[in-house]
Design brief:
Elements: E1 20-23, E2 28-31, E3 37-42, H1 53-71, E4 75-82, H2 87-95, H3 100-117, E5 125-128, H4 129-145, E6 149-152, E7 155-158, H5 174-183, E8 200-204, E9 220-222, H6 224-235, E10 240-246, H7 250-265, E11 271-277, E12 280-282, E13 285-286, H8 297-302, H9 307-315, E14 323-324, H10 327-344, H11 353-364, H12 369-386, H13 393-405
The structure holds 5'-O-(N-(L-cysteinyl)-sulfamoyl)adenosine (5CA) and zinc ion (ZN).
Length: 409
Amino acid sequence: MHAWPASEVPALPGKGRDLRIHDTSTDGLVTLDPGPVARIYVCGITPYDATHLGHAATYNAFDLVQRVWLDTKRQVHYVQNVTDIDDPLLERAQRDDEDWVALAERETSLFREDMTALRMLPPEHYIGAVEAIPGIVPLVERLRDAGAAYELDGDIYFSVEADPHFGEVSRYDADVMRALSAERGGDPERPGKKNPLDPMLWMAARDGEPSWDGASLGRGRPGWHIECVAIALDHLGMGFDVQGGGSDLAFPHHEMGASHAQVLTGEYPFAKAYVHAGMVALDGEKMSKSKGNLVFVSSLRRDGVDPAAIRLALLSRHYRANWEWTDQVLRDAQDRLARWRAAVSRPDGPSADELVEEIREALADDLDAPAALEAVDRWAARQQAQGGTDEGAPGLVSRAVDALLGVAL
Ligand code: 5CA
Ligand code: ZN
């Protein structure tokens, strides 16, 4: 699949700091030490509805990770998937009497437009589940042949017991895992499974549903977790730096993905850090396509809201916080954007060298974007109150805000 166009990232004087970030598997901060090429996999959308502010907040977090790395003069290999075949997509297509392929293509196009408008850096490889199927089938065959997978009425399940590290990503206890499995696409109640948590790797073809040639697996379609594993192993390999997504992906998705990959390769770990963004809520409940309590990026854009203000609104909350989207969050961001634009539109101002270091320091400290915004606020307030004589300062602030925060002033 094609991704979306990249907005240019201005180069800044000096060099950023190494990123310290929260890793779910250790529940602590780790200082990442990627080589010259940092590798990141961020789970993509299931394209059955438009991008809402919750999605955008999560992609914003991982965009910041990349901006910090780029500022340390590293290259970034970024891979993202599109879950363009899965139960929720088929259910929505059926509900709306629409072709599932057309639905997925339309929503993926809209996502690309939203990401472009928000200045999110595009992945180098943007891969759909459907196009990954030829790579998924041999992985499932290998797991089965190694005794790590088994058949149940034609469907193939992964045996979680096959991975001695199973449970180490999310660190949930058995009861929580079981509840989350039922809630998030698993089938712990299905009779005949070796362990109720075992996830499906390959689902045998069902009447009226799309299916693909699965060689020795028979016709069918892939399970959710193996999709991301196949794409990540193909384009990044084991031991990549960050596996990213919202906190609702820690279990089962990232837990199962790590186990699949660790059993397949015999190597450990799948990712060096598992990084999870908090959930954005609306009217007191997590924004979710299934609940329908959504604010779409595209609707705000259609209403004429400047995407830079949407981005500033996302940046105003720490990525790990669970927070509530309100009109006030957006209004505050619009006011801030106006203040910043006024401050950089003057021909000179107070020196911004220290500000650049403050932004760098805030982001390197577990992506503390709210602290970075406050630093820019302080510079803008000084500019407004007393101005300054540094002719390079307004330009440097614009470039730093663009390069490190993805906001065009
Ligand atoms: N296709 C899978 C991942 S392989 C999927 O989870 N798709 S999704 O469309 O449901 O979500 C896309 C990303 O947005 C995931 O990282 C998910 O954790 C995140 N996300 C979903 N809802 C919210 C929310 N309310 N707040 C923050 N992030 C969210
Ligand atoms: Zn995924």
